[in-house]
């Protein structure tokens, strides 16, 4: 038996991912990039294990969350480009 998928909002886009998927996986489905560097370059996950900080997004109003470490939950609101 598999768990029900979860639905979250990524920059205003509804995304559905399997239960247990990371927020990074959800963002990869919906957004062109995770954030921009200080010089404006688009950034995306590199390590996938919480070391590089390249996957930072705002989750439910809390900035600089490493999306590769956070499991997606129903109703989460995620914003990129912080
Ligand atoms: S991908 Fe490196 S910290 Fe998330």
Architecture per CATH nomenclature, i.e. the level-2 architecture: Roll
How much strand?
25-35%
Our count of helices gives 1
Kindly provide the radius of gyration, computed on alpha-carbon positions and rounded to a whole number of angstroms: 12 Å
Looking at how many chains there are and whether they match, the oligomeric state comes to single chain
**Content-based structural category:** mainly beta
**Secondary-structure element order, as H and E?**
EEHEEEEE
How can the largest sheet be summarized? 5 strands, mixed
User: Reading side by side through the largest sheet, how are the strands ordered?
Assistant: 2-1-7-5-6
GO molecular function: iron-sulfur cluster binding
InterPro entries: 2Fe-2S-bd_N, 2Fe-2S_ferredoxin-like_sf
Protein name: Ferredoxin
Structure explained in plain terms:
InterPro entries: 2Fe-2S-bd_N (IPR042204), 2Fe-2S_ferredoxin-like_sf (IPR036010). This is Ferredoxin. It holds the Pfam family Fer2_4. The chain starts with 5 loop residues before the first strand and ends with a strand. The model has no long low-confidence stretch (mean pLDDT 93). 10% of the residues lie in helices and 32% in strands. It has a 5-stranded mixed β-sheet with strand order 2-1-7-5-6, with helices on one face. The protein has a two-stranded antiparallel ribbon with strand order 3-4. It is globular and about 40 Å long. The protein is mainly beta and 82 residues long. It contains 1 helix and 7 strands; from the N terminus they run E-E-H-E-E-E-E-E. It has one domain (5-79): Beta-grasp domain (Ubiquitin-like (UB roll), Roll), CATH 3.10.20. The protein binds FE2/S2 (inorganic) cluster. Residues 45-48, 50-55, 66, 68 line the site of FE2/S2 (inorganic) cluster. The site of FE2/S2 (inorganic) cluster has 12 residues, from loops.
């Amino acid at each position: 038996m598999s768990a029900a998928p979860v639905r979250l909002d990524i920059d205003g886009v509804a995304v559905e991912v399997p239960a247990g998927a990371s927020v990074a996986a959800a963002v990869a489905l919906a957004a062109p990039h995770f954030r921009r560097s200080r010089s404006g370059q688009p950034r995306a996950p590199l390590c996938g294990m919480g070391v590089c900080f390249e996957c930072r997004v705002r989750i439910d109003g809390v900035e600089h969350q490493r999306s590769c470490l956070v499991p997606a939950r129903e109703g989460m609101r995620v914003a990129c480009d912080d």
